[in-house]
């Protein structure tokens, strides 16, 4: 069993469960500030224990729970132009930058077409539209949605020539308190859809993202107390930099080496991430899919 998956499962099972509707009401945060941390499993265990402690002032963080399940499988497919405009706009820190992806909630097959923008104050703003059975991600409706979002938000036209870039798989637990949401991801596996090359994250690393309408949260301060600082890492840009080491990655390189220490830039056999926990491992019940807005 992958240690990072075990760690997020234990954190979820230690927390009070809350349904999706409560998460959306308390901390949907489609417009928010994000901070990413690369957290070793031993530090993550202590961090999660503090957040879910019943004695926490204001009450403990709760865990998203649907049909008895508290960690979920995600599959994302990212799109970019042939010259990787989305990747390079983020690398260069351009003000008008965005990512385009399809997200599949593997436990039910629900699909969302999503565009993530950077706002004027550096916040992340997510726009999403469900994909119905038979819809193609770059079909007429999603392209119209993309054009509408980029036109309204940035006053620019949608790029032409969009195609498949990479795909990612991972497992996630979501912890929530009023106005705060923390996503805890494990077993990240990434595949380059052009070359077939794959990379997998360190089994002992949990990718933690804090999300809030403000800047620093209690979770950020706790992680700082463990000697961790926010990392320059996103799944799309970090994975693409690892999969294509010839790309300029500048300030991402250190984080990429931490997340993919053995495989960055290597080619390996493709396959789904291992280490998924079943009901006998930590008390989860039947599978369910959802759309958490993360």
Automatic annotation (TrEMBL):
InterPro entries for this protein: VTC_domain, VTC_sf
Gene3D superfamilies xrefs: VTC, catalytic tunnel domain (3.20.100.30)
Residues spanning the membrane: none
Segments forming domain VTC: 68-131
Region feature (Disordered): 262-294
Database matches in Pfam families: VTC
Name this polypeptide is given: Polyphosphate polymerase domain-containing protein
Organism expressing this protein natively: Streptomyces halobius
